[in-house]
Amino acid sequence: MTTPITPADEPMAKLPPAELIHLTPDVFTVHFWDAAREHRLVVPRCTSCGTYRFPPSAFCFVCRTQDVEYVEQSGRGTLYSYTVAWHPLLPDVSESVPYIPAVVELPDTGGVRLIANLVDVRPSEVRIGMDLELVWRDVHDDVTVPTFRPA
Ligand SMILES: [Zn+2]
């Protein structure tokens, strides 16, 4: 792997402002967000056939069972896809660019992918397939979201 050439003045990835982050968990997602507040990454898994179901859903898409267990993940991930937001589409994020929304694949889950922002990285350093590690962001007293940085 080659070392990326990074301009000295290229900014590190930023994050959208906390004021814009509001959650409305429902019966299917509340366990994920409750665990996140405790800095635990959990993914629901069907107790009948073992299929990971993410995003959380009412029925298993393989066997139609409703029962799930929440399996704690290691926090490791692999970058599946991403984009760099250089231009603020809203005035509220004008101080938050560049930020990097990413699709992160979790190992040992049958291909579960999670959307989260990348941190501690410059846009030119990001590579598809790079190893990532979880970093929790405590946004508000009752809201914590996962972010990922290069491992
Ligand atoms: Zn199932």
**Number of helices, counting only DSSP H or I runs of 4 residues or more:** 1
CATH class: Mainly Beta
User: How many DSSP E strands?
Assistant: 7
CATH topology: OB fold (Dihydrolipoamide Acetyltransferase, E2P)
Structural class: mainly beta
Sheet-strand content, in percent, reads 25-35%
Description:
- The chain has one domain (26-150): OB fold (Dihydrolipoamide Acetyltransferase, E2P), CATH 2.40.50.840.
- With 151 residues, the chain is mainly β.
- The relative contact order is 0.23.
- The strands form 2 sheets. The protein has a 5-stranded mixed β-barrel. A two-stranded antiparallel sheet has the order 1-2.
- The chain has 1 helix and 7 strands.
- The protein is globular and about 50 Å long.
Give a short overview:
The chain is mainly β and 151 residues long.
Features:
151 residues, mainly beta, OB fold (Dihydrolipoamide Acetyltransferase, E2P), five-stranded mixed beta barrel, two-stranded antiparallel ribbon, 1 helix, binds zinc ion
Task: List strands and helices in order, with pairings.
Blueprint: H1 30-37, E1 42-46, E2 68-72, E3 76-82, E4 100-105, E5 113-118, E6 131-140, E7 143-150
Parallel strand pairs: 5-7
Antiparallel strand pairs: 1-2, 3-4, 3-6, 4-5, 6-7
Zinc ion (ZN) binds next to loops.
